[in-house]
Structures are given as structure tokens and as C-alpha cells.
Amino acid sequence: MSFSGRRVSILRPAETRRFSASKDLSQNEKNSETHRHFRSAHEGHKPHAGLDASRASTGVIWCTERANEHGFSERPGDWANLGQGAPEADDDIAGSFPRPTTIPIDSAAREYGPTAGIKSLRAAVARLYNEQYRQGKESQYTWENVCIVPGGRAGLIRIAAILGNSYLSFPIPDYTAYSEMLSLFKNFSPIPIPLSEGDHYQIHPDKIAEEIARGTSVLLTSNPRNPTGHVIQNPNLAKIQDICRDRATLILDEFYGGYNYTTDCDGTTLSGAENVIDVDQDDVLLIDGLTKRFRLPGWRIAWIVGPKEFVEALGSAGSYLDGGANVPFQEAAVPMLEPSLVKQEMKALQLHFRNKRDYVVSRLQEIGFRIKDIPEATFYIWLDLTSIEPPLPESANISDGLNFFNALLREKTIVVPGIFFDLNPAKRRDLFDSPCHHFVRLSYGPKMEVLKKGLDGIERVVRRARGENVGPTLEDEVAIEED
């Protein structure tokens, strides 16, 4: 599968950038200990002009490494991890079906499996998509339209490996792992599409048409979107797919499609599959799996749905990239995908996570944050640290994501600085000039007691920044007890 690359200018005058302008960092902020640490550890920032930093430590991994320096790995149960993008995985959500506690392994499952996945699971995925999104449509998915992969990242890597020479456009902010994936392969040139906070981070069809006219032949985005919680809904999604048809390959990362709060938690999920005309002709690749909406991140079972010709190439790529997904777990996944069971599961999931969303939003507002957009999906809050009222004194030095993250570590709470979602695979710009620098991403994926603990930590950090006496940090309390 190949795509013809065309020359295109990626320069855009500063006054026309769609990314929202945010407050400039003061010199003191740029020289803080947290920023110096980040400069020495993160490959996406160039500590010296022309120097390609070699120590790669990014996203959630970098956050976890810093938390480990404060004792997270020794006693993780004492912490509120609102950083990792994982949903609670226990069987205590009302209306949710229980997850398997044992998995049989017969002799056939001990052998190597097909790199595109076992036929029974591929057929179950196709049936689910036809039931949910393609009723009454002439063109239907079959097992040949499905490739099973060992996790979403592996799926993205396989897709990247089979793309021909092309310009690949991607909106930012978006999922942090895209940056690493986009930097691994030289068969395409990644081109960011900055979105505007003032425009609610919307992806407009006219913008997609503009990118294609400039030479883009592949587009990649998460939908629902990580980290903002926004959704590209119909009719805009259908318009985007119409614009791409016969002109560009559209890759939709739909891992959060089940966390949909736009239809009053009735179990309806979101997918571009609804707008596909011909399943073998429309260049639309859909990525999803058990990880998020089935709350099984440890299983590493995901899938890619698309045209047969793509799926054949994806299966071949698996033979030299990852070897394929675990066969016993694939077999155990088949009964979970029965459409009526999935519908019930999605309703339970949506009700539970919407309640957690509402709690987190309410607590943040009580603390003083002004949240402009309530997330329509996912389990993330994209929090603007400059939105707090009344404004914090400048001496507080927690108005950027890195310093806010660092202050929370002392309260045994983890979030992800927004800077990681300003993808920079070509290392062309200084991330400290990013409009994402004054944001953090909070996950309300964990259990309610963890959310309460984390929001208590956020409240203490803010109150301390206001000059209130809230006592020692949790880290100091532990040090006092040990002494």
C-alpha cells in the first residue's frame, strides 16, 4: 500500500496559528528546578541549539519516574495516580459483567497464532461493528476486515509501518505516544495541525480540506479526543470522511468511543464506522480494543478495522514487528463481544464514569478552577492552570504544568503536564513555548476514593500557594514519622 508524497509548505504565519496563545513563562519559571530537570531528561526539548538530546523519557513514563523519586514505587497505595490513562479494572461497577478470573489454555492455544489474529475473534469484532454501526447498510464488515493486535500502540506501529511515502497530518494536542510513533518511521513526514482552545479544540471539515489540498494523504487523530475529552460528532465527522474519501487515509483512534456522555448514557458508542460507504474502498482505519471500554488494559488485546487490503498488509507487518496477540486471551475475548452484552456494558460504564466526571469537575470548581468545557467523552479533564479565580500570586510558581506536577508530587498525587500532549516528533520547536504548558491532564479513571485523595492534594497545593496554613505536605509528614 503506497501513497504519493507531494511537496507542501508546513510553515504558517504566527498570527494565523490555530493554537491558542497562552501566558509567556517568566524567566524565573523557565529556570525553576523542575524545568531544568525536564530539559536534561526529555528528548522533545533541545537544551542547546542544534543538539539532539539522546535520553528519551516521555509522557506518563517520565511522570512515573519522577514520582518514584518521591517514593511512589515503594508504597503506590498511598498515592493518588491521576496521571495514568487507565480505567478502574475491578468488578464493582453496577450493571457491568464480571471479567474472567481464569482462562483455559488448550493445546492449540499453545502454538503460534496468526499475526492478524484468530478468525473467531476477528469475526466477533466484525459482527459487533455491523450490529452497532452498519444496520441496514449494504456493505458489511467481515472477519477479513479485522486485524487483531497486541495493544493500541502495536496497532499504531503496524499502521505506520505499512504507509507509503506521504505527508501525515495530526491535530494537537493529542495522545502522547503518537509523538514516538511518528518519529520512528521515515516513510512519511508528520505535520501538526494546531487546534485552538478558543475554538474548543474543534477539528473543522474545512481545515481537513485545506490540509488535503496542501498535500496531506494521511490523517491521524483520536476520537473521542485524548486529552481534551472532546468528540468529533456527526455531521462534522461524516463531512470529514466525505472529504477524505478517495483522497486520504483517515486513521481514527477510537479507544474512548465507549465513554460517550452525549446521549444521556444510553449505551450508544461513537465510531467512524457509521459513515463508511464501502468497507473495502473507504480508506478508514479504526483502532479500538479491550483496553479502555472493556477495562482490561493488562490483556493487550486490540483491533484495527478497515479495508481487506490494509488488513492483509497489517497482518504481514505483525510477522516482523510484534509477532501477534496472545492466543488464549483472544479466545477469552470472543464471548465478551456479543452485541447485546456490549450494549449493557457500555450503559453501565457511561453512567459510572459520568458520575465520576461530575464529581471531579465540581471539586475543581470549588477549589477555584474555571472549566470552560465539560468533557463530552473519555475520562480526562484538560485543566487550564491559569483559569483559577481569584488569581494566584506570581510567587506561587505553579501556573505551568511542570511546576504544578512537581508540587503535587509532595502531596503524593500524580497528573500529566500538558506539555507532553503538544506532539513534537520532528523536534523543530522549543516545547517550553507551547500553549499546552499551562495545562495538566487529570484522569478520573481510578476509583472514587483515589479521586478524592488526589483532589484533596490539589486543594492543599492551591491553598498553600494562596498563603494559607494547611500544614506540612504528605511527604513531609512521612519524613517526620520516619524521624
List the helices and strands and how they pair.
Blueprint: H1 27-30, H2 33-41, H3 59-68, E1 80-81, H4 119-133, E2 146-149, H5 152-162, E3 166-172, H6 177-184, E4 188-194, H7 205-213, E5 216-222, H8 236-244, E6 249-253, E7 284-289, E8 302-305, H9 308-321, H10 327-333, H11 339-367, E9 380-384, H12 401-409, E10 413-414, E11 416-417, E12 439-443, H13 448-465, H14 474-482
Parallel strand pairs: 1-10, 3-4, 3-5, 5-6, 6-7
Antiparallel strand pairs: 2-8, 7-8, 9-12, 11-12
Helix pairs in contact: 5-6, 5-9, 7-8, 11-13
How would you describe this structure to a colleague?
This protein is α/β, with parallel strands linked by helices and 483 residues long. The chain folds into 2 domains: 27-35 and 56-90 and 345-478, Aspartate Aminotransferase, domain 1, CATH 3.90.1150.10; 111-337, Type I PLP-dependent aspartate aminotransferase-like (Major domain) (Aspartate Aminotransferase, domain 2, 3-Layer(aba) Sandwich). The chain has 14 helices and 12 strands. The chain has helices at 27-30, 33-41, 59-68, 119-133, 152-162, 177-184, 205-213, 236-244, 308-321, 327-333, 339-367, 401-409, 448-465, 474-482; strands at residues 80-81, 146-149, 166-172, 188-194, 216-222, 249-253, 284-289, 302-305, 380-384, 413-414, 416-417, 439-443. The strands form 3 sheets. Strands 2-8-7-6-5-3-4 form a 7-stranded mixed sheet, sandwiched between helices. Strands 9-12-11 form a 3-stranded antiparallel sheet. It has a two-stranded parallel ribbon with strand order 1-10. Helix 6 links the parallel strand 3 and strand 4 (188-194). It is globular and about 65 Å long. Residues 1-22 have low confidence and may be disordered.
